[in-house]
């Protein structure tokens, strides 16, 4: 069986399914309201990649429909989600309709402020409703009463509203906006399957065919020259788009996505890259400090003097290091924390654990999230009680298998596959959550071929790979990702070992 067939067989959900916007809660109401609206519209987004991409999609489609539209992206200090104060300041700019993207499902105060001021308030979002849904119109697949697909990103939901609007007008789908839906789907770690695979795959093809000037500039500044896939979206473009919001103000990210001026894009990419390097150093420091303090808890909650913008990334790194869910919070009178699960915690929902803990203790100010990630805030004096209850809950929810890292292998190889077979795997891109980069167990005799100062070239079953440190003798099975190395016009298959 060819490599791609093996993978297709083990990932039956990896079949693109065209999304149906109309099965999403309140889609028709929202589309009608927007089309008949006259007056200024403000799109209210978020400071992360998903919220920014969603805002650009909504802005561009409304602009094409001839609407007067502006965008409001909150800064990190303003916090996630729309509030009453922001509604009032938006009202003063002459807006009479607010459309939220990637937030707003339970923004009750903002919704009633809008009502008082005579502003139409339409929510589009993808977050789990925590509390009472706020507005009269809420386009959120998590509120749909049918069995339609629910795992869209915020930008995916925005794209579906955009395509509902064009469909109502009898116009073609705004497929050129799919690149942003694809980027957000991968970066927001939404499962890449069925409807999301459709959006992510088609958006990726758009991006390859005609990349946005700014996205090209970001890949350039990072020295990435291959055709982008899930790795480039999730590990290069995503962090660069996210970093501005994390470090304070998302407007540079918004600008780089919007600009068509290569000069300006290159300058912005340079600036963002510097910010990204600073952020990486801050993350490394926080991760080291937490790992030093770790005492073997099932669900550790670290609090320290770290910038709020990096606690989520730090939590993710620590979770992978200890294979357990982790919360990392910024110290203060009110602790603001982010939580992440490890990839091996497959049956554990961090959102469910936090919800349970909140039901029992009621100590949280606010919280929200998904299965793999959450955000919360609480008073410093309540930290200890919350922590100990959370530890009990995690002990009962997390099973022994969940804390053992497993490498899921897509098949066994005893000889090098043909170059074409590896190239063909590109049809499964973008790789991401639930659709990881394929890994094969390569079996054979290990040979050392050459070495340099910092590298050793090995070969196993006809597949060459580099290692930084010598491998123990007698190794005969190595899990590896495959890629093609092109040198002087000759292509050959190479491996990239995946240890742990
Ligand atoms: Mn989102």
TrEMBL record:
Keywords from the UniProt entry: Coiled coil, Exonuclease, Hydrolase, Nuclease
Lineage of producing organism: Bacteria, Bacillati, Bacillota, Clostridia, Koleobacterales
Coiled-coil stretches: 265-292
Gene name per UniProt: recJ_2
PANTHER family: SINGLE-STRANDED-DNA-SPECIFIC EXONUCLEASE RECJ
All residue ranges annotated as the DHHA1 domain in the record: 304-393
Domain (DDH): residue spans on this chain: 40-184
Name the record gives this protein: Single-stranded-DNA-specific exonuclease RecJ
EC number(s) stated in the UniProt entry for this protein: 3.1.-.-
Cross-referenced InterPro entries: DDH_dom, DHH_sf, DHHA1_dom, SSDNA_exonuclease_RecJ
Domain of life, source organism: Bacteria
GO molecular function: exonuclease activity; nucleic acid binding
A Pfam family hit: DHHA1
